[in-house]
Amino acid sequence: MTASLxxxxxxxxxxxxxxxxxxxxxxxxxxxxxxxxxxxxxVICGTTGEASTxxxxxxxxxxxxxxxxxxxxxxVVAGVxxxxxRHAVWLTExxxxxxxxGLLAVNPYYNRPSRRGIMRHFEEVNRATxxxxxxxxxxxRTASDMPNDLLAELGQLENVVGVKQxxxxxxxxxxxxxxxxxxxxxxxxxxxLGEPGGILVAxxxxxxxxxxxxxxxxxxxxxxEGLKDVYADLGVAPLACSVKAAxxxxxxxxxxxxxxxxxxxxxxTATVRxxxxxxxxxxxxxx
Length: 287
Known about the structure:
The protein is of the alpha/beta class and about 290 residues long.
């Protein structure tokens, strides 16, 4: 099996400036911050990176930026998913030319293809690259689950090395594939299976604590218990929105989300702020 791409991979948000454009300066600063605070690698242009609202130029520009700026300090995994196989192949070819360490490919969403359709889709994506491919199973977004027997079959493709598993019901070892937690609250269980780690969101804020779950297995459950409120409170809104709000509160410029995502309302903001304060990440106004 191909070596791990790292244990704590952060699915990085894409910062936008006040005019709604990709803010590359802010993106580089965020990359540096994440590498310094527990991330072994970054996933660029995934769901939390609002890839579905990026045009191709922006999408490939973010991958290029990450490879150029931090590719020698951490692994870079590029999101290349699309519900149009031709577009997924094109993105895969263009991303591969930029030199990331791996690719993240979700099964086609909205279309709800058959099992044979999913196989054909990934056969075409596999042919378009020589980079390691991590599949992404998230039926709550795609409306199609990839059961473990299908994942094992897909794992026979030359470049498919792992799966980002976001369906807890399917969480089990799969011959020939590495398992990455697709939800933050699955990380502890994935690590206990002896698998590499996760593609995570809370690691924007508590990456060092999450890495301790890798480094201190005897305290893994205890650390996870102490982070459950982080996972829950970030879920008060779509994660790209809540993480951007939290980063902005911490003075790490992340900008605002793009429609159809919106900024947090007053109650949601209060929830995220209180969580940051509880964890000592944000000092209270009276401190």
